[in-house]
Amino acid sequence: MPTADRRTAHSSVTLDRREGPYGEVVLRERGDNFEIIANGCFLMDTADGRSERLLIDAALAALPAGRTDPAVLVGGLGVGFSLAHAAAEPRWGRIAVVEREQAIIDWHLDGPLARISAAALTDPRTAILATDLVTYLRTTTDRYDALCLDIDNGPDWTVTEDNGSLYSASGLADCRERLSPGGVLAVWSAQPSAAFEQALKNAGFVEVWTEEVRVARGVPDVVHLALRDG
């Protein structure tokens, strides 16, 4: 989810605008890149996918050695970088992606974002779950080896108010419950959050650390990582 200062200087063209149950979501084209805007808040663009790829790679690297066909849940389809990177890695087994905005799903299935995700979406390992991530984590009985979550600009900058519960004690308990023993939670953020690191420790994760991706200006993008006990 690249930060806003990485957008190009080109003027933007609105390709689609939808009103959904969580507010307005907009797809814009700016030069060679696409942008997603939710309720007037810049979410992500296709200018630089390094941090989205790190989200997937760091989670895989953190899993116990020898784990075969690990299952990964990608929280947030976005512009598709995380999903596409997961599907390009043959070591992943089942790949599920949760996306609550039907407009974003449509832009990938038969819209401009298909150029990023088409191969991933036809991969037999991949399944799209059209639902709210917070609700899914609270109600499902499915378990995963890795949860790779990228639905906000970070724990301290949520897209909608109800997303805040994901980073609360109860939301992190839901994440931990959805992980297999030794599984890893990876959470993207536009900036480091010491408070969130402490919240992960308080939630019972046995190891917590942060990996950074430097950006052109401002603080680095980060991926917060936490391991469940084995």
Would you write up a description of this structure?
This protein has 230 residues and is an alpha/beta fold. It is 28% helix and 31% strand. It has seven helices and eleven strands. α1 (50-62) crosses α2, α2 (81-87) runs parallel beside α4 (114-122) and α3 (102-110) crosses α4. The longest helix has 13 residues, at 50-62. It is globular. 43% of the residues are buried.
List keywords for this structure.
about 230 residues; alpha/beta; seven-stranded mixed beta sheet; about 30% helix; globular
Brief summary:
This protein has 230 residues and is α/β, with parallel strands linked by helices. It contains seven helices and eleven strands. 28% of the residues lie in helices and 31% in strands.
Dominant shape: globular
- Could you give the order of the helices and strands? EEEEHEHEHHEHEHEHEE
> Whole-number radius of gyration?
16 Å
| Percent of residues in helices | 25-40%
- Count up the helices: 7
Protein structure class: alpha/beta
